[in-house]
Amino acid sequence: MALFWRIWFAVSFVNLVVLSIFVGLATIQFGNINSGLVGERLAVLAERTAGPFKAAAKIGLPLSTVRNAEALLERARQTDAAILAIHVFDNKGRIVQSTDKQPPSEIPAKVLAAHAAADGSSWHIESDETFLSSIDIVARNKMVVGGVLIVYPKSSSVTRIRAMGAELALATIIILFAGAVLSLFLLRVSIGKQIRLYDSIDSAVMKFEQGAWRSAAARPSLMEEGDAEELGHLLEAAELSYQSAGRELGPDQKDLQ
Amino acid sequence: MNDGVRVMDNLSLRSRLIAILVAIIVVSVMALSATSVTAFDRAVEPELANRSRLIGSIIRSEIQHALELGIPFDAIVGLDRYLSETLAKFDEVHRIDVNSVTGRTIASVERLTAPEIFEQSTLSKLIRLREDSFVLSILDGNELVGDISIQLNPLFVQSRLRDVFLDVLVIALVAALVALEMVMMLIMLTVGKPFDGVFLLLEEQRQGRFLHTIRPSGLGSLARVAVRLNDHAEDLAERLGILSNSVRSSARGTMTAVIAKGSPLRIRLSEVSDIRITLFLFSVATEVAVSFLPLYAREVDRPSWLTPEMAAAAPLIVYLAAVTMITPFSGALVRYFGARRLFLYSIPPAVLALTAIGFSDSVFGVTFWRGVMAVFYATATIACQEYAIRAAKDQESAHTFGTFIAVIYGGVFCGSALGGVIAGRFGYETAFITGAIIAILSGLFGLQIMKGQAGDPENLTKTSVERLAARRIFKAPFLALLFGIAVPMNASVAIFIWYLTPMILSASGSGPAEIARVVMLYYLVIVLLGPTAANVSDSRIGPKSLMLCGALASSAALMSLQLWSGFWAVTVAVVGLGLGHMMMRPSLYALVLRMMGGPGVGLDTLRLIERIGAILGLAASALLLEVRGMEGSLLMLSVVLVTGLILYVTIDIIVRYRSCDVRSEF
User: Fold this and answer.
1) Is A80 an interface residue toward B (CB < 8 Å)?
2) What total of structural domains would you count in chain B?
3) B185 part of a folded domain
4) Least enclosed by CB within 10 Å: which of A122, B122, B130, B237?
5) CATH code at position B425
6) Strands, E, within B443-568: which ranges?
7) Which of B27, B179, B421 sits opposite A28 (nearest CB)?
8) Cβ atoms of residues B269 and B452 within 8 Å
9) What is the extent of the structural domain holding B52?
10) Does one domain contain both B129 and B224?
11) Mean pLDDT of the region A60-72
């Protein structure tokens, strides 16, 4: 039965590894989906917020001169209480309008690089603690004169991802347990014959070994059934062949030395 | 060995264990997939609702803005047009109604959509969200003048969930393929090899030959039996060794038993399965970038004269060129170094190249390191292939190639899916580092498992069979096989799977994720059904018939695109081509081995021609697309496939006819 339990353990272990890989990938994928959805929502808001600034840029006005800019940004910020800040920046990355009372002088280099690569379309990236979503402000001559950047906290998203990981991990434990029970049943039904065969082979080997250390009278019979009997005969034939070769070699010189 | 013992040895226990393990894992993964989809469903719903609510509030504020300017509610000019524009912009909105406080409809727009196939499926019923709608009041100062009713498009939510479901399905497939490889390794290490080794020694020693030992391994008594049988051989060899020369010579002359001179030789058994986990992991590692490398190459620094499109294509072009250049030499390299050493030597540079691509900040860096990786990818995979051919009991069996192709394509499938998921979440660098770690893991497995004699170096001096094979590569049957079957097959992969499918699907509105899933179907068909096709090839049906069936199927798949078009037409053609190539690839390799009498120059030539076929295919697709357009290119490709098939069949018939004539003359 040792073989049976080892096989059962191996089956359960492989299942554990596979389900762990699945949970890891599924959690990562949920993170991707979640950040994509948040990014898309913020992009909608950024596009809406950028409207008046685009209108100003199209008639050649600098972004810093848009009337009621603070109110426009604040109104957009109030659509979601979680928004940390909304900045309007020029094409050099300098922040010209913001909902923040003390905004940084310019947007981070990472954002500027993403802004340069975006080629006029909306985009979003993630930093360690925030989602950053932005859209370019394009002037009449199709020159990008700046952009609107929304800074959104990542904490709730991280919590959601962790909750998803925990939920899937819990489901994995339950499924793993059910799988272990099912495999116990399937292994018994499906390879029971093989296990019995293996046990008989094990027993044939044991009897063969016992034969070597017991006296001739107490030597167990090698009679098993089928394969085990065949193995027993093979073992005995190999042993006889070995003894015969040993006799042909003469007394063991190692012992004589 | 007796048939009864063979029952225990491998097939029965091994196949039953594989069946049970795969069944348990498939059931577990499916259960977890269902849990994941419902959990995802619940988790994304609030975020989707937030977005839709935001859109509603934007529309409302626009209307209120008009009211603030003094425009009467029922006289806002262009309200219908504005609502239509909004509807067109946001896919998730199905209907917008603007009603007065008395209930009169001021403006109303609705999206007209045909129900999708997904909408009608059972799956959609399982994960269907409720149909949400929002009603937002409109104020004019302190007066309630009406409301906006926004009805969300349930198809949009369903399409999002369909994407989620398909993502989960891909992950489940990756997990199942990893499981299959782990199962195969486990079975081989615990049951297959120990049994084979013990029975081999028993049989030898029963016949009086004490020349070999094996590594004691396996469960229960097997390891003890191995120790005992090893001791027989070692003891006799030692006893023979300490005899004086004259006594030893006379003993050797008179003895019936054959005893090892010096220490008995340790037999290192080889199995085709030895390469499975190693090759699979290596393939996963090197293919992590497949799904995003063009994007990555386009994003890094490039000189002003290099267009973004060229920058994106450069790594693929250099990759194919490097693989093509190293391919003719790799067979000789395997024979010189041995498959095991060549594989292990390929790991460090591949790891270095993967890491370096991740940290390259210019298109030249990315392209150069991709080229380096291609060279060692070619040496490593060909080392594994040669190992498998030598380990196979029947070298001309298509089974070896079926296994090899299934493992390689399984790796491509898992690598691209894994790379896409990791790069999406943690960035490109992390995906490359993950690839490098998996490559190291593959090297460690190779170090431990590819110890069989099939991995040893071979004599480079050409045998008469090899000299004969070298002459045969210029004979008509072999050339017909190469140019009538192998080149069109590989060209069709490059043209249709790599190039035209993304172009056609993109033009019909599919996103990158959807395109990737359709392309993956080609590989998935080969991974899942390839081993079965190899067994069919080894049966009475034979490789030639199967290969011809495959060629017909792939031609039919491409020709079907002349009859219908669109997403499903392309998907069916991709699956059809996969089915065709699943039948062709192992049969083609088996036929080449039969023609050449074993691996060597014939196989090297086939590999080279395959690569050249792929490059020609890519070049032709770029040219044809400009001249003939997509439909014309597909028609040309179908014609090439059919012409190749006719060429091969004609030459085969002529050669058979002539050989019959020659025989009848004698």
Assistant:
1) yes
2) 4
3) no
4) B122
5) 1.20.1250.20
6) none
7) B421
8) yes
9) 17-160
10) no
11) 81
Could you tell me the pTM of the whole model? 0.74
Cα–Cα distance for residue pair B628/B223, rounded to 1 Å: 67
Residue B299 shares a structural domain with residue B429:
yes
Please indicate if any CB of chain B lies within 8 Å of the CB of A11. yes
Q: Are residues B425 and A41, on separate chains, in Cβ contact within 8 Å?
A: no
> Who among A202, A227, A249 is closest to B7 (CB)?
A227
Measured between CA atoms, the residue of chain B closest to residue A14 is B179
Nearest CB partner across the interface for A29, out of B224, B251, B421: B421
Of B269, B286, B305, which residue constitutes the final position of a domain?
A: B269
Same domain for B453 and B469, yes or no, is no
Same domain, B392 and B504: no
Rg (CA), chain A: 38
Residue B8 and residue A41: Cβ atoms within 8 Å? no
Residue A175: what pLDDT?
Answer: 94
Question: Which tens digits make up the pLDDT trace of B592-617?
Answer: 888 777 666 777 888 888 888 888 87
Say if B105 falls within a structural domain.
yes
Residues 108 through 167 of chain A touching chain B, CB cutoff 8 Å: 117, 160, 163-164, 167
Q: Do A168 and B39 touch (CB under 8 A)?
A: yes
Question: Is the CB of residue A172 less than 8 Å away from at least one CB of chain B?
Answer: yes
Q: Give me the mean pLDDT over the A58-78 stretch.
A: 82
Are residues A33 and B422, on separate chains, in Cβ contact within 8 Å?
A: no
Q: Which residues contact A129 (CB under 8 A, 6 or more apart)?
A: A153, A154, A155
Mean pLDDT (whole number) for B155-166: 64
Q: State ipTM.
A: 0.79
Measured distance CA(A207)–CA(A221) in Å, rounded:
7
Say yes or no: B329 and B433 in one domain.
yes
Sorting pLDDT into bands at 50, 70 and 90, what band is B342?
very high
Residue B666 within a domain: yes
Residues of chain B contacting A230 with CB distance shorter than 8 Å? 2, 4-5
What is the signed CA dihedral for B591, B596, B598, B600, rounded to 10 degrees? -120
Question: Are residues B332 and B457 located together in one domain of the fold?
Answer: yes
Q: Rounded to the nearest 5 degrees, what angle is found at the Cα of A74, between the Cα atoms of A71 and A80?
A: 150
Closest chain A CA to residue B200? A234
- A223 vs B: CB within 8 A: no
Q: Is residue B516 domain-shared with residue B381, that is, in the same domain?
A: no
Q: What is the mean pLDDT of the segment spanning B296-307?
A: 82
Q: How close A25 gets to chain B, by Cα (Å)?
A: 7
Distance set, CA B565 to CA B569, B570, B572, B576 (Å):
5, 7, 10, 15
The pLDDT tens digits of the residues spanning B416-463 come to: 888 887 887 778 889 899 999 999 999 999 998 888 888 888 766 656
In sequence order, what are the residues at sequence separation of 6 or more whose Cβ sits closer than 8 angstroms to the Cβ of residue B615?
A: B320, B321, B324, B494
Distance CA A248, CA A242 (A): 10
Interhelix angle B308-337/B363-391, nearest 10 degrees:
30
Q: What is the pLDDT of residue B413?
A: 85
The three-class DSSP label of residue B258 is strand
Both B564 and B604 in one domain: the answer is yes
pLDDT at B468: 62
Which of A3, A33, A167 has its CB closest to that of B44?
A33
Which residue is it, tokens 């080794």? B197
Q: Which residue has the tokens 């400009």?
A: B626
3-state secondary structure of B72: coil
Mean pLDDT of chain B: 81
Residue A223 CA from chain centroid, whole number? 53
Is B47 in Cβ contact with A194 (below 8 Å)? no
How far apart, in whole angstroms, are the C-alpha atoms of residue A171 and residue A26? 13
